[in-house]
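Suppose a classmate hands you a notebook page containing two proteins, each written out with its sequence and a corresponding row of structure tokens. How would you begin to make sense of it? This section walks through that situation. The first entry is reproduced here exactly as it would appear on such a page.
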Amino acid sequence: VGEDAPLSRGDLWLVGREGKDPRHVAQLNETPIGLAFVEGSKGSALAIRKSGYREHPAVSVYLVDLATGNVPDLLPEFPGNVDWLAALPKSPGAIAIQTAEGVHTNLYRLNIETGERTSVLPASLTQHGALAYPPSVCADGDTVAALWTSSDVPEEIYLIDDAGEPACGVSHPRVRALPAGEVRVETYASL
């Protein structure tokens, strides 16, 4: 209850649509602060954001195997903090994560099988500035919208198609910067 609630033990249950047949899946050392279903080679799983307490105090991504209740940390050596995660419906075996690395943020496609992170931001943004708010993934998972800012650049909206491939720069056809206040609709062929 209150501000300490996320630090309390959390139990993960699966419940049928009618509220019948609840099944206990896992007991976690704290209540997760973000959830996303993902399909992997072993079937459906649940990606969660939580810390590893003293062993790994930064918030990381853990993958709950819904069949066995096993909950491994997908980023045990990652020195940053995971601030957000989301499902990528058209990218089985992957989720989108926003991270804080020092004073900068990044947006990655995270492979749940290998733990490999692939930045989906142009290289010019990954060491400069930050995502002002959590990104938004469209319903079909084809496009991610991110609001970017830095100390010398006003907020800009980046639309990133197919969040699975890194963007090569702002001039890359799959990433377009829209200055604040400008409204423009652009469409591109799906990848």
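The notebook's second entry, a different protein, reads as follows.
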Amino acid sequence: SNARTDATLAGGAAWIGGGTGSGEIGVALNGDGAFLDIDNVAWSMSRGMSIAFWARIQQRTDPAFIVFLFDGGMSNDNMIYVASRGGPHGDFTVNNAASHSSLQTADANPQIADYVFGDLGEWCHVTCVASSTGTLTLHRYNAANGDRHTWTKTGLAPNSNTISYYSASLGRHDYNDNKYPLHGDLRDVRFYE
């Protein structure tokens, strides 16, 4: 959508230069409490949604949550996240009251030799799409070497509800005490409906 969502630097998150030659600004997350706290995000899943961002991993942790959206309830019925997981692999998960689907690059084709989110210090652009017909897609472009890959998984049941994600953050998991922080940099994070 064209609506803006505000994010607040928290826990030691700091502004940095974007680092891709564009002069854009990014945010450094130290892997030890730094994150961006996002205002409420709401989507009607009947229209699908997408999340796009640039990420530069500085140190690997397993898992490291890049985007985390949660409806604030006591179950994980309505949750969306993108995480770096299991060494080179990535995870794009969508839970809603009707269905759960997780696209894990470890289980999806193509299998690639490099890291989904690039080698340490490399900027990668990632777009995650949940279509209204129940398909999850993760697109990755590595700016360092020009590699592009796309992973797709079907099976998410359509849900016509509008879901408000009251607990939303970039760079950590907000559902329990273990925050699984990201040690890396983010820029140009966008949510689309």
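A careful reader of the second entry would note: The chain has no helices and 16 strands.
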